[in-house]
């Protein structure tokens, strides 16, 4: 699939001026030669969120901000019961802390001092490495599921995945780094810088940014699995054979840290790991830094590249994967009665979030507005969904309340729906509990075409959700040939794309450990 790729200069070279053509990416990023990161131990119980703050005190990219005062605003008066309320610049605003009691959604908007908008998109996926290429393939119902080619999996019962066959990182990642680091970090850095380029952050714009208020929050559910696996294999021979970068590059924060170093961004910089909910957690947390005045611009989302023997073997051992090897494009089939497990995918999805006035002053294209969201925990089981969907229902209700929208406002949901027998039904039941009386609701699953990108899924699906708002088209649910009796097929998008004037859109992501997340977007008005 045709993609647009460019790259960074090695550290020994100065940054050249931007090319005049908008089709080429900006060469405004410093290249650093470091590499990948966190290890996921297959079959282990999934870990808690791991947030590590990394800050960098010096950068040649530091510059005065022509628009904003450098004085740091701080939140105070945060309530730890009920919906979080904070004082910001003397006014009350809502924040995404979790209430201790059930919240009734209202169509009265909660007061926010600052608005957050989406101004850039970056995607590296099995269906393309540009947001428009990716979304056009979704609209056309193209499947990215194929036989695995990156290693010999002939002995595995599952031999298919949403694998990225080729990716040029030229212009995005320094050649030395691209040879050293794990694929998931290549995806992360490439998608992050493509989101900047898509957002019109040219060299001139970069020089005017207050980099103390620009941050990076891109997580990963499983981290640098190949590097970790290779290091273990090397250790079996001798510790002298181990990669000297193994320890620093197997920590979850390093991907975001590398990107922040490249950009010279000194604002909030850390990473979140909440399994397959990682991207949504990262996006909402990044938005909260903007709502709170700590940042004006944030790169956020997720990246994963777990299609390696240990990753495939781990999910096979969990009996979580489809075995439809003879017909890969039909394997991922959310809500279909014949679904037999999810299909692994890989890639990265990144949003450039920005404070509204900051975006307007620099003349940015505004794709959509980010209204808010919520996190909850099932507190039930490490891998199984709550039987009553209680955590998901609570998450949706709190997301609506925090965003100031009613259930009736929502007419599009990009569901988590992974094509597992239990998970698809539990999410659908929760959605019907919250939105069942809405006759205009349309629901689809991007995973029917991409497979499950794990920690990157929410980022890629956020890109798809924003693209749906931009284009007025929602993509089909492919392979939904015989809907499960437990779902109402009338609210599910059919086998072809549909025209939809989106009012409010929700994107759901849930992860091992009972992590639930819902984030909400709307057209910018």
TrEMBL record:
Molecular functions (GO terms): 3-oxoacyl-[acyl-carrier-protein] synthase activity
GO biological process, one term: fatty acid biosynthetic process
Catalyses which reaction(s): a fatty acyl-[ACP] + malonyl-[ACP] + H(+) = a 3-oxoacyl-[ACP] + holo-[ACP] + CO2
Top EC group: transferase
EC number(s) on file: 2.3.1.41
Ketosynthase family 3 (KS3) domain: residues covered: 113-523
InterPro entries, per the entry: 3-oxoacyl-ACP_synth-2, Beta-ketoacyl_synthase, Ketoacyl_synth_AS, Ketoacyl_synth_C, Ketoacyl_synth_N, PKS_Beta-ketoAc_synthase_dom, Thiolase-like
The keyword ATP-binding is annotated on this UniProt entry: no
UniProtKB keywords: Acyltransferase, Chloroplast, Fatty acid biosynthesis, Fatty acid metabolism, Lipid biosynthesis, Lipid metabolism, Plastid, Transferase, Transit peptide
Keyword Lipid biosynthesis: yes
GO CC field: chloroplast stroma; mitochondrion
Subcellular location per the Swiss-Prot or TrEMBL entry: Plastid, Chloroplast
Subunit-level organization: Homodimer.
Role played: Catalyzes the condensation reaction of fatty acid synthesis by the addition to an acyl acceptor of two carbons from malonyl-ACP.
Family assignment from sequence similarity: Belongs to the thiolase-like superfamily. Beta-ketoacyl-ACP synthases family.
Protein name from the UniProt record: 3-oxoacyl-[acyl-carrier-protein] synthase I, chloroplastic
Lineage of the species this protein comes from: Eukaryota, Viridiplantae, Streptophyta, Embryophyta, Tracheophyta
